[in-house]
């Protein structure tokens, strides 16, 4: 496949950017011409940020899987679409060509249809990182069902909240998952979740680990048995269902500043074009290259840059089931060497954690296939950037630092590999179509360079979220009401003298732990579920590897045993309610929290204490009980 819209030089970039701002409709229409449509659009863009309403390619009809599969299966049937590397290096890897992947997606589309799935149904997918996860996602898209993938690290409670919010009727899962030396009992977690999910009629269970699972008559069926039925039907093809450009493609739940995660909704055409365009340009993908994005498909990075972006471009996408440090800290490098990886896209947390093992795991690894490196999910510190550049890229590979969010669908601000300049710890320049601006607290735009403020976007790009599932008002409130007529990202940002953007971190009550978004309110709710907890306040603090760690201040009533034990109990409670990823790193027991007279917790003070900045706490005179601050300072962990 060729990409006529691939930007090849800095001059190209400036030209494309200018056009995308001055004539956005023409700009995106020309790109959209390169995809397969059942019917062309009537109107390129219709929008206002106040309702909000954003419609791209309205009237157009298509199916994203034809763009990701059929057209490549026709022109390059034997090209590898997915290379799958298992958790255990002793297990054989698998390669699925475009022809094979299409056939498997069609088979599973039949399975879903046999279970009664219809266009518009919501289907929850809770699976390990195996090719069947990608197959299930694409099969949903093929029949026009809306997938809601839930990361395999979330608890039963989190899953049932998500299933109930979206009223899913089918769940696709596996018996278990391997992650490093752990076995995770996915089906058993699903069974617990489904006790409170009356909307679910069918569960399809893939065999992965072989652990015993319960199978409930008329509800649960094995993936393999269902596939056999389709084979017995003679493996009929499955024509892709025609979708409106603005029909929902998927829901992905993400944390915000309230206790309840929200279902970010992306639609078919805009999301497809955005992930494709950003994939091809940011990574400067060349046909035949192997792209390795280390994220889990349970997060937006996996949706956009393991599945939809690469496959829409006819690329080879490497999917990895395991973790970077098992069986040893050379796992990524073994994979790069084994599969001749050309593009490696990972999180700063992974880089920092591998840095901790020194350069020994890199010795005798042939990384010469690497052409482009990328980072995503959190700010990368300059030290980690240089380590990545020197030890992994051998100073031969441009590094792209891609800033974006679940809500933006794909990369918003990033350099383009080898085409636009990189600057360590800076995401640098906006993608064509992205119009960033910085505003102060009052919403006044901050003009000029060498300034910082809150990052907003003023014009829609094709991949912008359309709503939060079942609650459009929440979407308006969260993203479009803080500043009039603007999309607010929730991030703080600075713009240097040359106009490069550097994301400095969240300015709301959202933490970024190892590149995963966690709301402080969500963690507090979970901690407060513990019988002995009276009240809690959670803040982030700088963590060498995770970027941010979770620091919890807890008022506890009637210690059952000792403090260490109680801490463990609280951790267990959080793991039960949300999942292990939300476990606090530190729990400090306090007798009170710093509150204003109106009862509001002054998090600013707690944040400073957690960061270890004990002497500059700012004004504490408005506190109800200033003495409590001294006590908290003394007890700091
Ligand atoms: C938040 C979005 C982007 C997909 C994975 C995370 C932070 C993301 C960067 C970056 C600095 C970054 C922001 C953003 N973030 N990329 N390159 N540099 N910060 O998606 O879970 O929706 O989180 O991650 O704070 O708002 P997400």
Large-scale geometry: globular
The low-confidence runs, each spanning 5 or more residues with pLDDT under 50, are: none
Query: What is the tally of helical segments?
Result: 18
- Rg to the nearest angstrom? 24 Å
CATH class annotation of the largest domain: Alpha Beta
Number of domains: 3
Largest sheet: 8 strands, mixed
Number of strands: 30
At CATH level 2, the architecture of the largest domain is 3-Layer(aba) Sandwich
What is the CA–CA distance across the termini? 56 Å
Q: Provide the list of bound ligands, each named once.
A: 5'-O-[(S)-butoxy(hydroxy)phosphoryl]adenosine
Task: Give the overall average pLDDT.
Answer: 97
Topology of this structure?
Layout: H1 10-22, H2 24-32, E1 43-48, E2 53-58, E3 61-62, H3 64-75, E4 80-85, E5 94-97, H4 98-114, E6 122-126, H5 131-143, E7 146-149, H6 156-166, E8 170-174, E9 177-179, E10 182-184, H7 186-194, E11 202-206, E12 220-222, H8 223-232, E13 243-244, E14 248-254, E15 262-267, H9 268-282, E16 290-293, H10 300-312, E17 316-320, H11 331-339, E18 343-346, H12 348-355, E19 372-376, H13 382-392, E20 399-402, E21 436-439, E22 451-457, E23 467-468, H14 472-480, E24 487-495, E25 501-506, E26 510-513, E27 516-519, H15 520-528, E28 533-543, E29 547-556, H16 563-577, E30 586-590, H17 603-611, H18 627-634
Parallel strand pairs: 4-17, 6-7, 6-8, 7-14, 8-11, 11-12, 16-17, 16-18, 18-19, 19-20, 29-30
Antiparallel strand pairs: 1-2, 3-13, 4-5, 9-10, 14-15, 15-23, 21-22, 22-24, 24-25, 26-27, 28-29
Helix pairs in contact: 1-2, 3-4, 3-10, 4-5, 4-8, 6-7, 9-10, 12-13
């Amino acid at each position: 496949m060729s990409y006529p819209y691939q930007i090849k030089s800095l001059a190209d970039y400036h030209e494309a950017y200018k056009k995308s701002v001055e004539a956005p409709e023409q700009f995106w229409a020309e790109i959209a011409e390169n995809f397969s449509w059942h019917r062309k659009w009537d109107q390129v863009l219709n929008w206002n940020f106040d309702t909000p309403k954003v419609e791209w390619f309205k009237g157009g009809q298509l199916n994203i899987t034809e763009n990701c599969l059929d057209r490549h299966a026709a022109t390059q049937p034997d090209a590898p679409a997915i290379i799958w590397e298992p958790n255990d290096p002793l297990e054989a890897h698998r390669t699925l060509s475009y022809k094979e992947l299409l056939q498997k997606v069609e088979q599973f589309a039949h399975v879903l249809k046999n279970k009664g799935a219809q266009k518009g149904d919501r289907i929850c997918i809770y699976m390990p990182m195996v090719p069947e996860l990608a197959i299930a996602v694409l099969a949903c898209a093929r029949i026009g069902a809306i997938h809601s993938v839930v990361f395999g690290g979330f608890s039963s409670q989190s899953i049932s909240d998500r299933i109930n919010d979206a009223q899913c009727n089918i769940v696709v899962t596996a018996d278990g998952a391997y992650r490093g030396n752990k076995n995770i009992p996915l089906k058993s977690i699903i069974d617990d979740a489904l006790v409170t999910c009356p909307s679910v009629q069918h569960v399809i269970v893939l065999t992965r680990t072989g652990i015993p699972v319960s199978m409930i008559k008329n509800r649960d069926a094995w993936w393999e048995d269902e596939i056999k039925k389709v084979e017995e039907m003679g493996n009929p093809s499955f024509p892709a269902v025609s979708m409106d450009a603005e029909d929902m493609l998927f829901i992905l739940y993400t944390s915000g500043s309230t206790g309840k995660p929200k279902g970010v909704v992306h639609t078919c055409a805009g999301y497809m074009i955005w992930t494709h365009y950003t994939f091809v340009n940011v990574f400067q993908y060349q046909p035949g290259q192997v792209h390795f994005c280390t994220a889990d498909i349970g997060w937006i990075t996996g949706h956009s840059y393991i599945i939809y972006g690469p496959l829409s471009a006819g690329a080879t996408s490497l999917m990895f089931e395991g973790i970077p440090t098992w069986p040893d800290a050379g796992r990524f490098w073994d994979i790069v060497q084994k599969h001749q990886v050309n593009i490696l896209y990972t999180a700063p947390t992974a880089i920092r954690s591998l840095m901790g093992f020194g350069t020994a795991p890199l010795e005798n690894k042939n990384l010469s296939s690497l052409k482009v490196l990328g980072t995503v999910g959190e700010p990368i510190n300059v030290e980690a950037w240089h380590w990545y550049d020197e030890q992994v890229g051998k100073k031969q590979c441009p590094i792209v630092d891609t800033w974006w969010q679940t809500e933006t669908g794909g990369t918003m601000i990033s350099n383009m590999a080898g085409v636009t300049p990189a600057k360590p710890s800076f995401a640098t320049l906006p993608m064509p179509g992205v119009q960033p601006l910085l505003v102060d607290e009052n919403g006044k735009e901050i003009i000029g360079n060498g300034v910082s403020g809150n990052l907003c976007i003023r014009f829609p790009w094709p991949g912008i979220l359309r709503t939060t599932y079942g609650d459009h008002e929440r979407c308006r409130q969260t993203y479009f009401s803080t500043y009039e007529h603007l999309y607010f990202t929730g991030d703080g940002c600075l713009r240097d003298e040359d106009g490069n953007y550097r994301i400095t971190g969240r300015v709301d009550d959202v933490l970024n732990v190892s590149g995963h978004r966690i709301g402080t309110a969500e963690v507090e709710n979970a901690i407060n579920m513990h019988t002995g907890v009276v009240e809690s306040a959670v803040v982030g603090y700088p963590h060498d590897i995770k970027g941010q760690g979770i620091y919890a201040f807890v008022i506890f009533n009637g210690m059952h045993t000792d403090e260490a034990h109680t801490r463990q109990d609280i951790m267990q409670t959080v793991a039960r309610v949300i999942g292990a990823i939300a476990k606090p790193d530190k729990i400090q027991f306090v007798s009170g929290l710093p509150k204003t007279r109106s009862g509001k917790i002054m998090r600013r003070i707690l944040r400073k204490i957690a960061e270890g900045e004990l002497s500059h706490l700012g004004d504490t005179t408005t506190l109800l009980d200033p003495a409590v601050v001294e006590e908290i300072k003394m007890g700091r962990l």
